[in-house]
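**Discrete fold encoding**
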Amino acid sequence: MSRFPSPARYVSAERLAALHAGVRWWPVEIAMRAAGLLSLFVAERVILAERRMAITPVLHAPTVTDLALCAVFIVLLSLGLTLSLWGPRLFRTIELPGHF
């Protein structure tokens, strides 16, 4: 038994099949792109906080906190760009060649 609920609990099987087939569904389109924009906004806040920590009060060698904030920024930036640009096309089923 999975710890996380299945998306099928909230979305009908027909809708999931349509997403896998590449059919556009506007509520998912809007939700995923909004999540991407939210992720980009949070990434901006994180990198601005990191910049403030790095230059005040004086310049210093990077600490573990600095490196962790930069790693969080990279993850949020990647997630935000992926969701904003690709959206529900991430669910589309693709055919792999036989050697995979």
Remarks:
- The longest helix spans residues 26-55.
- The chain has a mean pLDDT of 84.
- The radius of gyration is 19 Å.
- DSSP finds three helices and no strands in the chain.
